[in-house]
Structure formats: C-alpha cells, structure tokens
Amino acid sequence: MRIMSFTKKWDKLNNQPEFTTFRFQRKDKDWGIGEVVQVYYKSRSPQREKLFEAEIIDKALRKIATAHEQYRPTEEEAIADGFNNLIEMNTYFGVTYGSRIFEEPINKLTLRRVSP
After folding, report:
1. SS3 106
2. Distance CA 77, CA 19 (A)
3. Distance (Å, rounded) from C-alpha 94 to C-alpha 100?
4. 30-80, pLDDT tens digit by residue?
5. C-alpha closest to that of 21 among 30, 12, 33, 29
6. Cβ contact 85:79 at 8 Å
7. Which domains, and CATH codes, for the chain?
C-alpha cells in the first residue's frame, strides 16, 4: 500500500469522510481509482504521523497553468481543497512546484476514508 503524504494538517484531513487533493502524475505508477493509500502527515519527517487509510474514488486531469478553461481547476475546487480561493491555490503550486505547473498536468483525486 502506497503512502500519500501531506505537509500541512488541512481541515479536510480531520473531519471529512471524502475530500480532494491535487497530485502530479507519478512517473513510476500513477495513482489509480480503487487504490487504497495510507494518508500520512509529514511521512519523511521525525513528526511522521499516520492519519488514516483512504480509497481513491475519482480521478480527473487538470492543468494549473493553462489557457484552456475546461482543464483549469475551478474556484470551487480550490476552496474544497482547502485554499481560500483559486489565486491562493495557483500561488501555492507555483511557489512549491515552480515550472512544473506549466509543463505537466496534475490529477485531481477524490478520496474516501476507509479507516479512522
């Protein structure tokens, strides 16, 4: 079972049975619908904490920096992901991932908790 790590304890990780997250496609084996993952807070840190297990129930392709409206995340998706608005989300991804947001698509994953 693979690990999906978060570096921030978003509210969505504390109290939502279903939530979304945006992840770049994996080069080895991309995330797949039906896959069960272990959700961790800071998995590669001394503060490592397993939060729960979750199943990926939906996957949609998005592109952070694109002129094609149909592929861009929406304001509603950004807010559901834990940001205040789409501008904040775009800024976060730009600072965190740099030029990748212009070069690579990103997966919008919907997960459902399967264990507490």
Report:
1. strand
2. 10
3. 8
4. 999 999 999 999 999 998 999 999 999 999 999 888 777 778 898 999 999
5. 12
6. yes
7. 3-113 (2.30.130.30)
